[in-house]
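CATEGORY: protein folding

GOAL: derive structure tokens
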Amino acid sequence: MKKITALLLSAMLLLLAFSGLASAATGKPPITVWAGDQKVAFDAPPMITNGTTYVEFKALFNVLGFRVAYDAKSKTITGTSASVTLTLNVASGAATVNGQASAKSVQLIVQEGRTLVPLRFIGESTGMLVSWDSAAQTVKISAKGPTAADIKELQAYLARMDAYDTASDLEGTLSLIAPGSPFYAAVKAQGEAKEGDPVVRTTSKLMDIPTFTSSSAVIIVSQHSAKESGGFYLDNDCVLKIELVRGPNKQWLLSGLELQKMEYVNTDEATSHEADVPADDKAAILAVVDQQTKTSNDEDLDGYKATIDPNVPGLDQTMAATKQTMDTYDLKYTNEVVRIVDYTATEAVVYVVQTVEKVNGPAFQNFRLSIASTYRKTADGKWLDAGEGKLLKVEPLSAV
């Protein structure tokens, strides 16, 4: 037995030596993987088996932005991103992409306690391009660019969103938003348009597509919104960054939204006239505006908070920021113009031009601001700030 073991050991040593010489002779470098411009670092080196490149799944999932979970009982790996959920069963090779079973099983390799997955399958399942450079032993994972058909589809999505928005079609608008996103709940909470609400026509134009895969996209959109009829509204031009994901029926759904630029275009026209307001309501509304100015000058945080609807989202954060300003500076607020520019029995818009000047505190840039703020009448007849102020203009004054 000892002789047989010695012979086997000698054979293995010869084989390893020969493999090393063969590798040196070919001069092939180790396999490297790049995701975009980032080189992926693996605890276990990538390997090729039967023409397929395998890599450690945790490092790959992390660089692709996946959250990773492992169910030891079912031996199932789950990777979840904003747009894709992959499951891989280590024992059976069964795989799913967004809940849909893969047409064929996917072989996984367990080596020294680490699980390796087929790189191309993972990359392409997430809508990425996977390329192999045999000479350089390099795999590159990159985002796919949109085709002409993809661009047309995105433009059609924006056209549907504009049509629903212009028609104040709440259900239609919600059908274009991912149900799990915070925007779905926010839009739903706004409810149906009310009588007297402005009718606004929105026109969106696709400007750029920074990121695109078959399952997700980031688009830059310019948007013009103009009132056609109804109550108070400020026409505006804006630039939006919109994140989209594919829904269950492959339809694009909004999952994220970021306002990058906003410019109001009819402020002079919209704020130049005085609304017809009953004397009692006018006095009550202007009294709230005066109280806000006075409590700001007196640094009376509780008094200022009392002028705001307690149901305003983010009120506590606003109050915390206001307190920090009061603790840092002694400022003087002076109203130059106060004008009620729109009024209904329960809602009013007040246009205010106000200067803000430092009395004491660190270096500060004095400024003049123009703002249109909405005030609403509560069930008990009290007017409160609705927390929907629109900043129209900021002009710097002398620095002190």
